[in-house]
Design goal:
This protein is about 30% helix and about 30% strand. By secondary structure, the chain is α/β, with parallel strands linked by helices. Bound molecules: adenosine-5'-diphosphate (ADP) and magnesium ion (MG).
Length: about 270
């Protein structure tokens, strides 16, 4: 059996919109995008803001707005994902950590958000949920809160707890580390690596290349809704000699810590 969990082929996403004077137009922010993730693997998606990272995640989870038109194929465990089967997989086999907590149900208590997809008895679900809360440093009483009552850090912990349910095989984390301090960042990255080491597939969406290089197996660089290059994470080293595309190399060399290499790569000081 193939150990491929997710395969996205030639994905395009267009939006039917109305502009000034109610003029109808179609924008296509995602064009011919292809990615895949195997069991035990972290694929990092890096790219500037607006490059289409969240749209890809939303297309996989089938939570795009109604005016979105999707072409191409998304399959999970070699079966095409469609409106009929994604519903049953969401939260049971595929976990989504959204970029914005607005994707959590604002009317559902935190303990129940974590519980979604636990197919056990009520009592067993409660025990599992409490064990998860303890693991993630949340108090028992935190479960009684609603999402708006939690701090950003607590919310992230709740979201991570939703991923460790039995049965979860693919995790899609959309920018789980914005603006967090180093210690919290290290914890989130370690957690994602642990998930992968347990055999899950992880899509880590981020604009932090350094974090991606630290934990990912592959890095896919997005620009304007297309992937410029997908390379093993260890190709992002030195002057980026093993990277195929100049754009990817420039992105790597543009990092502040590569300032010295940048000069060398441009022939200065060599
Ligand atoms: N509902 C929408 N209607 C029209 N355009 C959209 C919609 N959602 C996103 N876009 C456009 O798609 C592009 C990619 O968005 P997004 O995937 O959110 O970027 P990223 O997550 O990489 O910052 C952006 O240019 C954005 O304006
Ligand atoms: Mg985004």
């Amino acid at each position: 059996m193939s150990d491929r969990l997710l395969c996205v082929r030639d994905l395009s996403i267009s939006f039917s919109q109305y502009g000034k004077g109610l003029k109808h137009f179609v924008s296509t922010p995602i064009k011919s995008l292809s990615v895949e993730i195997k069991k035990g693997e972290i694929l990092a998606i890096v790219g500037a803001s607006g490059s289409g990272k969240s749209l890809l995640a939303h297309a996989i989870m089938d939570i795009l707005p109604p005016n979105a038109m999707v072409k191409g194929e998304i399959s999970y465990k070699e079966k095409v994902l469609d409106k009929k089967n994604i519903g049953a997989l969401r939260g049971t086999e595929i976990a989504f950590i959204p970029q914005s907590v607005n994707y959590l149900d604002p009317f559902m208590k935190v303990k129940n958000q974590v519980g979604i997809g636990l197919h056990e008895t009520k009592e067993r679900n409660r025990q599992l949920q409490e064990a998860l809360f303890e693991k993630y440093g949340l108090k028992k009483t935190d479960g009684e809160l609603y999402p708006y009552q939690l701090s950003g850090g607590m919310l992230r912990r709740v979201l991570f707890a939703t991923c460790v349910k039995q049965g979860i095989q693919l995790i899609i984390a959309d920018e789980p580390t914005p603006g967090i301090h180093k210690e919290a960042l290290d914890m989130v990255l370690k957690q994602l690596r642990d998930f992968a080491d347990q055999g899950m597939g992880v899509m880590l969406i981020t604009h932090d290349i350094i974090s991606a290089v630290r934990i990912a197996d592959y890095i896919s660089v997005f620009k304007d809704g297309a992937n410029i290059e997908t390379a093993p994470a260890n190709f992002f080293e030195g002057k980026g000699e093993r990277l195929k595309e100049q754009y990817t190399r420039n992105l790597w060399l543009a990092l502040p810590q590569n300032e010295f290499l940048r000069g060398e790569a441009n022939g200065i000081g060599s």
